Structures are given as C-alpha cells and as structure tokens.
Amino acid sequence: MRASTLSGEIMANLNVSCGSTLRMSFLWVAALLIVALSPLASAQTHYKLVRTEVTKHVAGGQPETSRVEGGLKSMDINTSQPSFTSTGKLSISIPDRVENDQQTFSASARLDASWNLKSTVYNLNVGVNLIGSPKTVGKGDPGPWPTAGSHSLSVEVAMETSFAANGLVRKWSEGGKNYRSFVISGHTGVVQTLSGFNITYIYEETKSEVKAEARPGRVEVLAVVGEVELSPGGDDSQAYNLKPGDRINRWDRIVTGMDSSVKLRFEDGTVVDVSELTDMKVLCFIDAGAAVQTRLWIRGGEISASVNRSVERPSSFDVKTPTATCGVRGTKFTVRFHKQTGVATVRVTEGRVEVTPVNPSIQPVTLAPGQSAEVTLEGPIRPSNE
C-alpha cells in the first residue's frame, strides 16, 4: 500500500519545424525535500522562481542563450520550409513559488500546433507521454503519411511532482544564495539537421523565520478502521500501522488502505476524517500568539473536516492539493483529489472556503454553504449548488 516517491518524464513529439520532425522531451524528476522546520524551530524554507534561462542549439550554428526574469510560461515554435509552413505554441504551467520544503506541486504542458503541407510529408505526428506514477499517455496523430493541406493538433499532460535531492535536480550556491533548478529540454529537425533547446527554471531558496515560542501542535488519533499506515517524517521505510491514541507529528505521512479510514483531532478541537485510499501529510504548530496553524497536503483521496473557529484562539486551516489550496473560513467541508484525473473537488457544508488554484491565470473563488466546485489546472472554477 505504501506509495512510492513521485517522479516523472514528459516526452512530446511534434513534426512542425526544421525539415520534418519536431521532438520535445520534458524531464521532471522529484522526491521529497528534507524539512527545514525543526522542533521549536527557527525557519521554514521556501523556493521562489526567479528566472528562466533558454538555450537554443541551432543546427549548423552556435548555441544562443537568453534569460527571462521570473518563469517562462510559453514559447512560440514557427518555421517556414519549401515543403510546409508551421506554427506551434508551447504553454507551461508551473508554480512561481513552492511554499515549503516538502510541498508537492503540479506541472502541466500543452502543445498547440498547426501546419500547411504543400506535399505529402513522412513521420508527421504529435504525442505526449507522461511516465511516472501513475503513467499517463496523451497522443494525437494524423497518420504516418499525412496528405497535403492544413492540419492541426493539440496535446496536453499534467503531473504531480516535487523537488528531488538527486543529480537530476541541480543544487548550488551563488553569491551567498542557494538555488535549485530543473530543465525542460527538446530538439527539432531530422536526423541530419537537429536543433535543440533547454529551458531551465531556477528557484531561489529563502527562509522565513518562525518565532522561537512556536511549538508542535498535538494531533491525536481518535479512531482507526482497517489498515492505516503512518510514515514518520515522510520516511516510508519506517512506516507502521496506526492505532487509537497515537500521536501525529509534523510532516508525518498517512496512507489509508481499501475500506480503511482514520479520525484525527487537532489541538484546537478540529476533527478530520481521512477516507479510504487517501495519501496525505500533516503539519500543525502553535505560534507565539497561541494560534493553531494547520496544513494538510493531499496527494490523493478525500478528507472531511469540522474546523473549530474559536474567537478566543484564532487559527488557520489550509488543505492543499496539486491543483488548489483551500483556505478554510468556515467549519465543515470536504476535499477530494483524484490522482488519475487531476481534479480536486471541494464541498462546503457550513461556513466558507476560499479556493485558490495553483494555476495563477485562474481566479480564486469563495464557496458558501451548500456549494461545491471542481478544480483543475485548466479552469475556470464554476461553483454549483448541491
């Protein structure tokens, strides 16, 4: 039942430029980061996307490098050859900020292409493969011998990932600052005339201080049904079965099996029911003002929460999925994330829940009692009354 570390490789093929075939491969590999928030801790690590470096290797020429401040989210791919003309647009959705060391985030890529063939061209296709956990494949293909005329195709993939402490995610220091980066790479052309590119996203590590008075919040297991595993600090090699009365610590990972569930009680009286086939992480601490700060990260499955909104003891309660963050302003709600479809579903019974999509181009919404909404990387969010 234990879930493996998420990793993946996105590969795309598109025949639109530099002769006859454009092939792009996107490489994203991830594992959980080491948490920087220690007991009674000092600081919490964040990662901010500060710049994008693009290197193009033109066939027969010298590499050309450009730099963009912030994150490059799209790139045009256009060409004109005697036998065809083509246009293509690559759109990428990645977070501008990763909120903490262990946060799992979503990445997506969409390729829209069209071309006009003046004669029959061989090996023309568009395809996207996402290889990871689980494996997802999306492909559009006009056939191995498309006829002359106009053609257009679109392909799209999305994945859940995180930074990795291995050689595939670069870590370095520069000017007294720490950085991490990952690369999207690809190439165009036919075998004899390949042109390539690398898109490098560079995140700067920053730390926000947590007051020394902060302490871990108590999270207690009230009830367990079936098989529920806890991995201390997210270390699956140390996983054990939960039982009533156990304590949950920061960054512990909880995974429920088939027909299994667990009920948790937080220090402020909030109760969370974790349903079957759910994979989540927990952070709870008490700040200097005695406010309870709770964060739940759901990688898949469903939780229902009854949040105690005490005026005397203010608190914050957020639930994060790969597609959205749910900031709770009310008392009773449910969040479900479906890994295979990448859809987060939020239902509010009492109070209000503010839903903020990971994709910054999608507007946040606030759900009232009796409302629900589905959140994807594409959007928009359309609340509905149940």
What does this structure look like?
0% of the residues lie in helices and 56% in strands. It is an all-beta fold and 386 residues long. A hairpin with a 2-residue loop joins strand 12 (170-174) and strand 13 (177-188). It has no helices and 31 strands. It has a 17-stranded mixed beta sheet that branches. Strands 1, 2, 3, 4, 7, 9, 10, 12, 13 and 14 form a ten-stranded antiparallel beta sheet that branches. The protein has a four-stranded antiparallel beta sheet with strand order 5-6-8-11, with no helix packed on it. The protein has strands spanning 8-14, 22-28, 43-57, 64-69, 74-81, 84-93, 97-98, 105-117, 126-131, 136-140, 149-161, 170-174, 177-188, 195-209, 215-216, 219-225, 228-231, 240-241, 252-256, 261-266, 271-274, 279-286, 292-306, 315-320, 324-328, 332-338, 343-350, 353-357, 365-367, 371-375, 384-385. The chain starts with 7 loop residues before the first strand and ends with a strand. The protein folds into two domains: 8-209, no CATH class; 215-385, Jelly Rolls, CATH 2.60.120. Mean pLDDT is 71; it is low at 2-42, 124-145 and 188-194.
Bin the strand percentage: over 45%
Question: Unreliable runs, pLDDT <50, ≥5 residues?
Answer: 2-42, 124-145, 188-194
Number of strands: 31
- How can the largest sheet be summarized? 17 strands, mixed
- Give the overall shape, derived from the CA principal axes: globular
Q: Quickly give the structural class.
A: mainly beta
Query: How confident is the prediction overall: mean pLDDT?
Result: 71
First-last Cα distance: 34 Å
Multimeric organization:
single chain
